[in-house]
């Protein structure tokens, strides 16, 4: 290895398949995030690519410390952990992993919705604890999908997959995005609040942006109503958890299902106390096949750039030379 050999940096932890494949093709430097800035200048100047995981640290500081960086391959479809503004100002390409996890997240969303409405987890726990034999049948589900009107806050790739899975359930579907889509026939609401007023089931699948911060607030939950079910599979950033807890306490809504939380892995203790709440530890895309596919796309973006100057899935905010 010469002093001119380019390095691929992995700051902190990432899926092991990313490490394995990158090491087979290039020289990889994997160090804790906090040690990147203390690397000697010659080493930092050799780093041309970075494989980045959401929990990997402050990407803005990493970008500033790496003068030769050309590409950041983000592990995940959401790339709010990457300082895309700083990257764009430097002409650095940022990539993400769209499409490969859409089906898994959509499947999990439907499962979370069904479990929240029908309380299947509680029913299984009842059976496993011996209550069925000792005490009789589990209580009737207070909620159902029958005749519901489902609203999607966000109708991107994953949102459309969720909607397509909802159609066989014979529910009505509406959505809110910044602008109406011309390629769907679902009802459009011009605002999130109007959507909540229109539907009785609300699924949040928007990315983390300044506009989506705590967008699911007390007013939206009040509009959803006492038969309302709220499902969150986008980012915990989008939900005012104090308002949600209050709405569940007062019966403002009927139930909620959450796969994401505001300060992960911290989950507000009060959410654990509600029998009408389903909680998952951010596992919507967490299958072996899907995570392997995400890892492969991270690596393929880096290899494509270093070997052919072509990134496969650049995000729109940064150049795609």
TrEMBL record:
Keyword tags: NAD, Oxidoreductase
The D-isomer specific 2-hydroxyacid dehydrogenase NAD-binding domain, residue ranges: 110-284
Gene3D superfamilies: NAD(P)-binding Rossmann-like Domain
Domain D-isomer specific 2-hydroxyacid dehydrogenase catalytic: 9-315
Pfam entry (one): 2-Hacid_dh_C
Domain of life according to the entry: Bacteria
Family from the record: Belongs to the D-isomer specific 2-hydroxyacid dehydrogenase family.
Name this protein carries in UniProt: Lactate dehydrogenase-like 2-hydroxyacid dehydrogenase
Species for this entry: Rhizobium paknamense
């Amino acid at each position: 290895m010469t002093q001119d050999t380019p390095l691929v940096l992995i700051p902190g932890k990432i899926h092991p398949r990313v490490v394995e494949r990158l090491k087979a093709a290039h020289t990889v430097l994997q160090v804790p995030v906090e040690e990147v800035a203390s690397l000697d200048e010659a080493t930092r100047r050799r780093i041309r690519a970075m494989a980045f995981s959401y929990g990997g640290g402050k990407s803005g500081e990493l970008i500033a410390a790496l003068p030769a960086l050309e590409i950041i391959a983000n592990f995940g479809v959401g790339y709010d952990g990457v300082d895309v503004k700083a990257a764009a100002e430097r002409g650095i390409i940022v990539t993400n992993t769209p499409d490969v996890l859409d089906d898994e997240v959509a499947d999990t969303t439907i499962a979370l919705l069904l479990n929240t409405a029908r309380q299947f987890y509680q029913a299984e726990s009842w059976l496993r604890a011996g209550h069925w034999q000792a005490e009789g049948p589990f209580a009737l589900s207070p909620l159902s999908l029958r005749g519901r009107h489902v609203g999607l806050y966000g109708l991107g790739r994953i949102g459309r997959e969720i909607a397509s899975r909802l159609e066989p359930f014979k529910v009505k579907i509406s959505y809110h995005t910044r602008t109406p889509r011309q390629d769907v026939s679902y009802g459009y609401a011009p605002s999130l609040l109007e959507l909540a007023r229109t539907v009785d089931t609300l699924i949040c699948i928007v990315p983390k942006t300044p506009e989506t911060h705590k967008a699911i607030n007390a007013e939206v939950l009040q509009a959803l109503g006492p038969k309302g079910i709220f499902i969150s599979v986008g980012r915990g950033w989008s939900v005012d958890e104090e308002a949600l807890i209050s709405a569940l306490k007062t019966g403002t809504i009927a139930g909620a299902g959450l796969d994401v939380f505001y300060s992960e892995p911290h989950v507000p203790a009060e959410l654990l106390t509600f029998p009408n709440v389903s909680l998952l530890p951010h596992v919507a895309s967490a299958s072996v096949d899907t995570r392997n596919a995400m890892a492969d796309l991270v690596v393929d973006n880096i290899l494509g750039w270093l070997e052919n100057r072509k990134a496969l899935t650049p995000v729109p905010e940064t150049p795609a030379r």
